[in-house]
Amino acid sequence: MCSPQESGMNAMSTRMVTRSRTRGPGARPRAGGEDSAPLGKGEAAAEGRKRHSPVKRQQKPQRLHVAYEASDGEKGEGSEPFKVPTWEPQDWQQQLVNIRTMRSKKDAPVDQLGAEHCYDASAPPKVRRYQVLLSLMLSSQTKDQVTAGAMQRLRARGLTVDSILQTDDSTLGKLIYPVGFWRNKVKYIKQTSAILQQRYGGDIPASVPELVALPGVGPKMAHLAMAVAWGTVSGIAVDTHVHRITNRLRWTKKPTKSPEETRVALEEWLPRELWSEINGLLVGFGQQTCLPVHPRCQACLNQSLCPAARGL
Ligand code: SF4
């Protein structure tokens, strides 16, 4: 099972320059062959001893300069420097604790039918990764139950890049119907599968820029694919639930107009070790409590802390 392993990185910490370096479990794997499928275990590279020249007696005590830098694991994708947040929302930590409590039963549709539950765990790693990507492509504008049904029908025929390319459009359409925008998805799935076969040996790429370059693959899908298929935390996966709820809770400094704008705003301040948790947590919360229309504020533990509760 290619379940995601989340990074245990502590985004808020700093460390001294002279130290051993640890590669966390969320460290980015190498793209390509099947050996790269399992998440890399944390590895530590021992730092060699430094040779010391004889100590010279100093006449005057010298001021000691201690330099700090963000650890490798604390840096964003592409080794961006770690940013110290200058703003964070009021009460967000208590709101998060309350949402975790409300989600403790893990009984929302996303918990049983999300992308990490739709692939064949016994298939070879690159087939599993392809199935993860495909389930994400099917899931946009579609209920989890409908996506899961379509994946079941596709898997019953053996779901691989080759099998999809050998399936005619009409048959593929019937198999995935009634997922949202199924006609477009037939086209995108065919185009993406052809690219995966030609450029990636039937595997999926292991970077967000390469994933979003595939037809029908958006940023949310790319970040979820990185997390579920590659075990890498590349960013916060923001869909309509995450977008709506974080705006209601004022988790963005100012109201945002699109999920992508929300992702950028959240990544400005939310500690990186929470990035992989947020999607599943808030999607389920949005399916059960913080509904798009008529949210169940009376049953919500955040009612007294939620700026939107009064206006809904
Ligand atoms: S109080 Fe209402 S709007 Fe606010 S988080 Fe809870 S359900 Fe959503």
Descriptive key words:
mainly alpha; two-stranded antiparallel ribbon; 4Fe-4S; 4 strands; Endonuclease III-like protein 1; binds iron/sulfur cluster; 312 residues; mitochondrion; 12 helices; EC 3.2.2.-; single chain
Provide an overview of this structure.
The chain is mainly alpha-helical and 312 residues long. The chain has 12 helices and 4 strands. The protein has helices at 92-102, 109-113, 125-139, 144-156, 161-165, 169-176, 182-200, 208-212, 219-230, 240-248, 259-267, 275-288, and strands at 15-16, 21-23, 43-45, 68-69. Strands 1-4 form a two-stranded antiparallel sheet. The longest helix is centred in the middle third of the chain and has 19 residues, at 182-200. Residues 248-249, 289-290, 295-297, 300, 302-303, 306, 308-309, 312 line the site of iron/sulfur cluster.
Strand and helix map with partners:
Blueprint: E1 15-16, E2 21-23, E3 43-45, E4 68-69, H1 92-102, H2 109-113, H3 125-139, H4 144-156, H5 161-165, H6 169-176, H7 182-200, H8 208-212, H9 219-230, H10 240-248, H11 259-267, H12 275-288
Antiparallel strand pairs: 1-4, 2-3
This protein binds iron/sulfur cluster.
Iron/sulfur cluster binds next to loops.
Compact summary:
Interacts with YBX1. Interacts with ERCC5/XPG; the interaction stimulates NTHL1 activity and NTHL1 binding to its DNA substrate. The protein is mainly α.
Beta strand %: under 5%
Largest sheet composition:
2 strands, antiparallel
The gross shape turns out to be globular
Strand order of the largest sheet: 1-4
Mean pLDDT: 80
Specify the number of helices.
12
Bound molecules: iron/sulfur cluster
